[in-house]
Amino acid sequence: MKGDLKVWNKDVFGDINTSKKRILQEIEVFDCQDCNGTLTDSDRLKRCDLVSRLRELDKKLDSLIRQKARASWIKNGDSCTRFYHSTLRWRRLRNEVKGVEVGGQWCEEPSTVRLEAKKLFETRFKSTKDLGVRLDAVEFKSLSVEDNLSLITDFTEKEIRDAVW
Q1: Global pTM?
Q2: Which of 79, 99, 135, 149 could be 108's S-S partner, Cβ–Cβ 3.0 to 4.6 Å?
Q3: DSSP string across 102-165
Q4: 84-131 tens-digit pLDDT
């Protein structure tokens, strides 16, 4: 059944990677024409169409990769398999902090790494009452005394009528 599905996939969707390469080459040709100044308006529309088709192919490829990853996870699972533990080990090693630079020198001693990480987060997330915004040199527009008085006086019937009509 797997073989039949592969054939059906090629017939219905085509080879996504080959199609993507072909579209990228066509876009590159249009880009070269644009650099030379020989790109016409119809060519620009064709290029836009190619870019939208490329986005669609990228979405299909992304969906396919997600489906394959999901199928691999279902097959190999998160039970106590070698795949599961190798994935955990790989993530642990990838996320591990091996060392830090202290005073211009690289240090890998665990206690120093912990201390430097703690200092980093303490300085990064310490609370201050000062928001770090200074408005000393900013000049704000202000109203004159006459404008201020005209804003707080009562409206006359004539002003209301002029505004409505």
Answers
A1: 0.43
A2: 99
A3: ETTEEE--HHHHHHHHHHHHHHHH---S--S---TTPPPP---HHHHHHHHSPPPHHHHHHHH-
A4: 788 888 889 888 888 888 888 888 888 998 999 899 888 888 876 666
